[in-house]
Amino acid sequence: MANGQYRKDISPGVEVDIVLKQDQRTGKTTNGIVKDILTKSPQHPHGIKVRLEDGNVGRVKNIIQ
């Protein structure tokens, strides 16, 4: 599994684990399929922000291969 700090590693349709805004304190992850990539920069230290197909928005922690 790759971490989600680099935009080049993430594309729509990829399965990822994200941390939602309300779960940042606990680090609880939510699994889903990427719909949109919201971070414009090529890299982000806390993870690339994405929107999942179910509508959840959060930062990628793991990319599931």
Describe the overall structure:
The protein has 65 residues and is mainly β. The protein has one domain (7-63): SH3 type barrels, CATH 2.30.30. Helix content is 0%, strand content 40%. The chain is built from no helices and 4 strands. It has strands spanning 15-20, 29-37, 49-52, 57-63. The chain has a 4-stranded antiparallel beta barrel with strand order 1-2-3-4. The chain is globular and about 25 Å long. The protein starts with 14 loop residues before the first strand and ends with a strand.
The number of E-state strands comes to 4
Helix content: under 10%
What is the CATH third-level topology name? SH3 type barrels
Q: What is the radius of gyration?
A: 10 Å
Can you tell me the overall shape? globular
